[in-house]
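#onboarding

Welcome to the new folks! Below is a worked example of what a typical request in this channel looks like: someone posts a single protein sequence, and someone else replies with the predicted structure as tokens. Don't worry about understanding the tokens yet, we'll cover that in week two.

Example request:
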Amino acid sequence: MTRQKLYGKLSCRHASLSIAGVLGTKMKIKTITCHDVYNYGSALQAYALQHYLESIGHDVEIIDYKPWYHENRYNFWFIPRDSKYFKYLKRSVLLRLAYRMLRYRDYLTNGRKEAFKNFNRKYLKITRERFHHGRALKSAPPQADIYVAGSDQIWNTENQNGKDRAYFLDFGDKNTKRISYAASFATDHIDPKLHRIMQKRLQRFDHISVRESTGMHILKSMGFSRANQVLDPVFLLDKAEWETLISESPIKNPYLLVYDFTHDDNCLVDSVKRIAKARKLDIVSVNDFKPMKGVDHNISNAGPLEFLNLIYHSKFVISNSFHATAFSVIFQRPFLVFPLRKHNNSSRMRDFLASISATDRYDQNLDLKIDFPKIASRLKEQISRSKNFLANATGVDLNRELLREAIAPSSLGWRTPVAPFVLQLPLIRIPSHPQHYITSQVQIQGEKRDRRSFARHAHVANRSRHR
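Example response:
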């Protein structure tokens, strides 16, 4: 039996393979990102990176970093420290109350808060300790073999997080490996005055990757010529993996989904009305801050799962959101994307659309046919490159299909396929000469069974782990 046939026998698309001890070493990884900011894309990309790193055999936790500038949503008494009124408001409860009442729109979508909390509790593996500032991280850093910064707009210098040392992994043992994955500057350029400090902070990384081509240009302008461009973590999981989180549609009639952060773009609104009318679709708005006028359904209490569900069941998606666009591509839903007016962070949408030859979907009031097979073909190579970057940076060999495929129960002797299950193999080598067998332990629906499956081209190397 050839090695290729062996891998074919040990493959099944619907199972999760734990490769700790198969090839490479199981690493203890801590990631840091903006995971808890009541933003759909932020939560889902954090989940995707965690889930993928676990799927290639690592032990992963997200550092629960929640600095002051991420505390402003749904905290009634919170006043941003960078507010010009801060020094006055902090002295008077009455003034603070008046200030918050004037910002009433922050609480029109308060129902989202619990949905996000539920998602975090169920799907994100977060460190037990919460860190509220970088000093706390430096004084008592979570222990890890590898720190990973990313993804999303963690290096956007127009926001506080882009100036925060924590997102440049300025904590922990200096010998701990440091990686950035799909970090985003979210803009075409950064202030030249920040170049020197950014250079110093980036020098501590062992492997650097960014999400946008504009990010690559920024790095090169600062002397970092060996960085990598990779895809957002949501593309590390395929459509079938995301579909495991999908439930029934909350809307009875066919609908167009609109996700508009700012409600200040007339071109976006015109496109929504025109396309919904032409396609005879209801209009559903999923809201961050306030309801949208003139739609059939306003949804103001959606969490990350509900957001996914709404995109999945839609017939068309219009947004000014990077991740609404990303999931429209993953689920192959027709879409248009518009820039965030008065915000300098739309290069991320332009760069992504250019990378998949879909620039005609950007800031256009046109309902053109989308060539999804062509997009899928463009994405395939980028996904492979992104996974290879993570594999190389974390010490995993992905050259064998065994590592990303699962084991079919029927191939191991069961008559009826059973999923999901986890196969854990001891450390093995696949040499050029035949040997005897692989001993495996299979856990199926909570029941563990020992099974010996014979393979002529496998060599048990358990002893080597103890030498």
